[in-house]
Amino acid sequence: SASLLAIALSAGAAKADPNGCDSGETVIKFSHVVADSGHPKGDAARLLAKNINEQMEGKACMEVYPNSTLYDDDKVMEAMLLGDVQLAAPSLSKFEAYTKKLRLYDLPFLFSSIEAANAYMASDDAKALLAAVEPEGYKGLGYITSGLKQFSANKPLLMPEDAAGLKFRVQTSDVAVAMIEALKASAQKLAFKEVYGALQTGVVDGQENSWCNIYTQKFFEVQDGITNTNHQILAYGMITSQEFLDSLDDETREQFLTIVDDTLKQANQQVADQEANCRQQIADAGSTIRELSPEQRKAWVDVMKPVWQQFEGDIGADVIATAAGYDK
Ligand code: LMR
């Protein structure tokens, strides 16, 4: 009867889950490799899911798969073109197979603060740079900042010579390899989920990452200490596939893109505080954090910054100059 149908429909509506996917909604899966919470990307992903699930109820819903539970960063790019995942935010260091323009972000000492990186990444120039992924079928939706990277090893690092002869885990980035080799150290590319084990078993001696990755992955537990080198920015390219965007009707697509844009702006403003908090937690856990004197810092800059020249042709001297201009 009509009244039974009405009861059934309202019961269905009451059961609708604002935090998950109901039948009939377009499912947006976001796969990433970091901690679910207490991390700039994990927190940004959850905030985005909340906003999409609240504001697009009945039309679309988002599910977050953190911690490499669905895909690692190599696999996620393939899975996206197959339509198995709709959102990902790999580190900008991991786009080399798709474009060499984004090597910009790996240049050591390009940005000395999260604020400078955020300012550049909010610019039209940076947005245009992200379009370099489009010929491969991806669409760059914006940047998520994560923090500045710090070196750690199984011995104290104060001068670049302290790193000589050690083996460091790096992301799949030739700029990172060149930077490590400039230290007369060796680089090993490893997936993020393998880093803790590699440090623990001595497959590598050291690593470089943000405070929140070092904290949430517990790298500090298997290292001598962390040196506050701030030598590189860690940031992500939020991507989807063009095919997924084309599958949405105009109104849904506009709403989705607006929510993504607003959420990323909000998330990026919190990164500096989140990173300070992760650093504090590492200190509270009893790990040694070493500060560099101005002379020591200069020594690291002098050894690593020359790698810019090797990659200038891939990136473009004008692009480098514009980005570096934000580091005031
Ligand atoms: C790494 O592999 O170290 C990072 O890209 C992990 C991440 O996503 O922050």
Automatic annotation (TrEMBL):
Any Pfam family hit: DctP
Key word Magnesium present: no
Stretches assigned to coiled coil: 257-284
Signal peptide: 1-16
Domain of life: Bacteria
InterPro entries documented for this protein: DctP_fam, TRAP_DctP, TRAP_DctP_sf
UniProt keywords, alphabetically: Coiled coil, Signal, Transport
Family named by the database record: Belongs to the bacterial solute-binding protein 7 family.
Protein name (Swiss-Prot/TrEMBL): DctP family TRAP transporter solute-binding subunit
Species assigned in the record: Jiella mangrovi
